[in-house]
Write a sequence for this structure.
């Protein structure tokens, strides 16, 4: 299959899903896989992420706080392997007409309901990902179709692969997608974006972001303060949101949470408001 044929088949499938398997050799399957993967990557970075930034200006999108159980192994087996596998079984395994269905439904009826079944399962797949965020406002719910559009597109891509190639190939696609954005990207960011340092005559601060929690390392949260003024802070393996909740009223400020090591030293005591402004140099605190 050519790139053009793959894209045309995919867009036609979105318009009118059908349960027609493609007889492809291994190289052709790889080609379809790569073309659709790149299509979703382009959509994610050129449309979805800018759209989220735009929505965030009107409704601050809140991701869950760091979970200290999220070690590398836990994240890999749970978020990269187990969750995608469960989702694939739940949302896409039934999307092929098999002989055992003959007792429940004939082929003609199956062909008629198949498009609606695909749409229903893709929409459900998108809806469950609303739980990725902690927002519960009316505006967020109204904007939620745009916020989960990446999952909707991804749902169609994996459904196409599941129907046209096989269930296993759909699972592999889901595994790789989660691995890239949950494991690979955080590791790369931690290697190239660390550390953040700000050295002035009044204070020094150094922040190192960690992609995963390490149970073999100690957690430290030490704050040397006096009368709401801060002299020194030492943090090891604590979330930035946890720090904000500790220094200020809980839920007063929100940040896209990250796991950090932080060392802050002030020549003279620094007010909490001044420390917040220091953090805002590197983080979008809302």
């Amino acid at each position: 299959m050519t790139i053009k044929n793959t894209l045309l088949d995919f867009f036609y499938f979105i318009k009118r899903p059908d349960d027609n398997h493609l007889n492809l050799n291994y190289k052709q399957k790889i080609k379809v896989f790569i073309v659709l993967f790149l299509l979703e990557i382009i959509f994610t970075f050129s449309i979805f992420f800018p759209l989220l930034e735009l929505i965030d200006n009107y409704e601050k999108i809140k991701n869950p706080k760091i979970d200290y159980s999220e070690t590398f192994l836990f994240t890999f087996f749970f978020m990269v392997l187990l969750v995608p596998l469960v989702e694939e079984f739940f949302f896409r395994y039934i999307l092929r007409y098999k002989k055992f269905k003959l007792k429940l439904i004939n082929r003609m009826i199956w062909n008629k309901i198949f498009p609606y079944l695909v749409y229903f399962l893709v929409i459900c797949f998108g809806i469950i990902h609303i739980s990725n965020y902690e927002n519960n406002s009316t505006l967020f719910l109204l904007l939620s179709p745009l916020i989960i559009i990446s999952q909707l597109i991804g749902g169609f891509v994996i459904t196409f692969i599941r129907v046209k190639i096989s269930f296993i190939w759909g699972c592999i696609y889901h595994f790789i997608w989660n691995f890239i954005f949950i494991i690979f990207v955080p590791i790369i960011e931690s290697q190239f974006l660390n550390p953040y340092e700000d050295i002035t005559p009044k204070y020094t601060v150094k922040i190192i972001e960690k992609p995963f929690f390490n149970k073999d390392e100690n957690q430290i949260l030490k704050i040397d303060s006096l009368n709401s003024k801060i002299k020194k802070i030492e943090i090891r393996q604590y979330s930035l949101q946890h720090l904000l909740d500790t220094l200020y009223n809980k839920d007063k400020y929100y940040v896209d949470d990250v796991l950090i090591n932080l060392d802050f030293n002030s020549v003279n005591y620094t007010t909490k408001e001044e420390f917040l402004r220091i953090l805002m140099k590197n983080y979008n605190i809302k």
